[in-house]
Specification:
Length: about 160
């Protein structure tokens, strides 16, 4: 009987040791997953670091090319926000494009809104514009215009990763 108790005690000790190792490995695995996600978020943030988003700028037709979008943004800055044309021309755009909209989401939103609500949410009718700037100075100068843009129902924001 003593021999069987010794074997059972030894087995309990080994099971306990294995459970501790499993727990330790699970913690290490979770840390690696979190670190990987953080690195992906950081990498995505860096790729969008010089981007600015414009919500609510009218869209000319269904399809706009990059040049037309850039012209729309520059026109908005000079005509609506009254930024001097020389200052607007000095801003260097690397790229400007509209983000695609999900048609089903737009249709379901509009189906549930009254006509007055639709008019009050004009900025939801247009696809957002993402502008990639050549310098951080230009980005900060555009973001400083955000309070004035909000007064005319246009939002100027940083382009952050979804996880942020």
């Amino acid at each position: 009987m003593a021999a069987i108790e010794a074997i059972v005690e030894n087995a309990r000790y080994r099971v306990s040791k294995l459970e501790h190792q499993i727990s330790s490995l699970q913690c290490q695995f979770k840390e690696l997953q979190t670190t990987g996600k953080d690195e992906n978020i950081i990498q995505e943030y860096r790729s969008k670091e010089y981007n600015v988003r414009f919500h609510g700028l009218p869209q000319k037709g269904r399809i706009e090319n990059h040049d037309q979008t850039e012209v729309e943004v520059r026109r908005f800055l000079t005509e609506k926000l009254r930024v001097p044309p020389t200052q607007v021309d000095a801003i260097k755009f690397s790229n400007a494009h509209r983000l695609p909209r999900r048609i089903s989401a737009v249709n379901s939103e509009n189906a549930n809104k009254s006509e007055n609500e639709e008019r009050s949410s004009d900025n939801q009718k247009y696809s957002p514009i993402v502008v990639k700037l050549a310098s951080m100075k230009d980005k900060h100068s555009l973001l400083k215009l955000a309070p004035d843009a909000r007064k005319i129902k246009v939002n100027i924001t940083m382009h952050l990763p979804m996880a942020m």
